[in-house]
Design goal:
heterodimer, A: 365 residues, mainly alpha, ABC transporter involved in vitamin B12 uptake, BtuC, Arc Repressor Mutant, subunit A, 2 domains, two-stranded antiparallel ribbon, two-stranded antiparallel sheet, 15 helices, 4% strand, elongated, B: 258 residues, alpha/beta, Rossmann fold, four-stranded antiparallel β-sheet, 9 helices, 26% strand
Chain lengths: 365, 258
Amino acid sequence: MLTPQLEVQLIAVIIAAACALPGVFLVLRRMAMLSDAISHTVLLGIVLAYLISNSLASPLLFVGTAAMGVITVWLVEMVSGSRLVREDAAIGLVFPALFSIAVLLISRYTGNIHLDTDSVLLGELAFAPFDRIELLGIDLPRALIFGGGALILNAILLALFYKELKLATFDPALAATLGFSPAIIHYGLMTSVSLTAVTAFDAVGSILVIALMVAPPATAYLLTDRLPRMIGLSVAIGVAAALSGYWVARWFDVSIAGAMATMAGIGFGAAWLFAPQRGIVAQALQHRSRRERFAVQMLTLHLLNHESTGDAAIECHPRHLIEELRWPPAFANAIVRRAEQSGLVRRQGDVLCLTEQGRALARDL
Amino acid sequence: MAFAVEIEDLTVAYGDKPALWDVDLRVPQGVLMAIVGPNGAGKTTLLKATLGLIKPAAGSVRIHGQPYEQQRRLVAYVPQRSSVDWDFPTTVLDVVMMGRYGQLGWLRRPGRAEREAALAALEQVQMADFAHRQIGQLSGGQQQRVFLARALAQNAEVYFMDEPFQGVDAVTERAIIHVLRKLRAAGKTVVVVHHDLQTVPEYFDQVALINVRRIAAGPVREVFTEANLRATYGGRVALLGANGSAGAVTTPTPAPGD
């Protein structure tokens, strides 16, 4: 039997993986904010299904929430399709409206059940092991079973429709002309997002659902330029955020969901700064190296133009670079050194001369 | 004469403003046809409505004699380059293989046959060396050739291309025109939205002049006249040709994004 500690971690890992899979396509379709909307409006689906069935374990809950996710997307598209407001505003209008209806219904009709608005935001991951049901004779936490179900469902859908998802995400017009309805794929994806959100929602709350759907894929996007790798990395990053978040929460005695979301954010921040090619630091280095390479080329061209003229003694003096080319002294020295090291330029007394190699480079420019 | 494309009474409206007004257009099989007209004339709209990407207010489209919906397999579409996100995490080869997805249908995965078809198509546009590059590393002209290769991989009968020559380098322009001529030689039909009037007589057999309505359509020699161009573009056309037909024409109509 697993300890409650291990169970909580397992639930977190499974939910992180389940969220990362559809999250990849949300991020690539630039629809990350829809996960925000859906993860909130599923609450209305839960409440309505509860009011009809009077049970929090009814299968109607899944039907209701999946439908509510799709309705959310449809409403957003209808409002933004009217061209009276843009899509970001449409999302900001639709989901608070649906979410607040859910909050009103909860406070009016369901005061005495386990549906409170605090747990909606951050969930109760620490309590998840206490809510158990039996599956095939094994006593397991409900969140583990539902999270596992969502993960398996998402993995199967991805395996079956990977080609279609990729095509409709990259080029919806081509998808349409090839007979793959982008609308069906779009709403299929949104249904999967809704179902994942509702299973994750109970355990980890809506903020973490968003964090786990958006942050790991956005991080992976910075680290690779291949879709299969992006999917794998997203899952790995989500799992890493879940585990590290759990231990941070234990260590500092803070909310588990909050710590997991924070770790997902820190992971993104690290990739944003230090990703090998797209990170801010790498880009700054590339920019510097390009600037230096260009400056070396400029130097060789300058020397070529002046090497056999009468003013060579002035024009080809390193001081001239500082005075006339307006290079800062440190930069000019670095460029001369770099040119010398690459064998393009050598010193003759005070004056810089091109080597054969340097002359060839300058002539090719 | 057998027609590859028969468009009848095609009308598209955005709100109550017609973008295309009752356009009839017949494209014979085995020709290269240019669609020309000023900016905002509805050239792209005509292509998109023909392919069902925009819902027309009225009209019908037949491909090789049958309604378009039943003939999707015969049709390849090259959208404007700017219509997709070139930072998408995928390779050149993968994008070209997407051209084969229509034949595969739902659920079936691309395999070696699709890979080889895609490589052959890349070979035709001289992009085989780039097969494993990330698409974001390509120049504009290379992107256009990848899109062309993707359409070639579809092995269609009728090709619709939206501004394939827009902003490409000379190498790409020659590569595209070479491919178009090979397609024609193989009996395929190509319909191209085109913006450079000067090259119409050299590149194309047929031309359709569109400005919301169809002004004229037919063989370049008969239709590409000063009178028709004036009717299409208003007074903004300068004809340099002496006999008023098939001469070099200039309308510097800078398209947005040039």
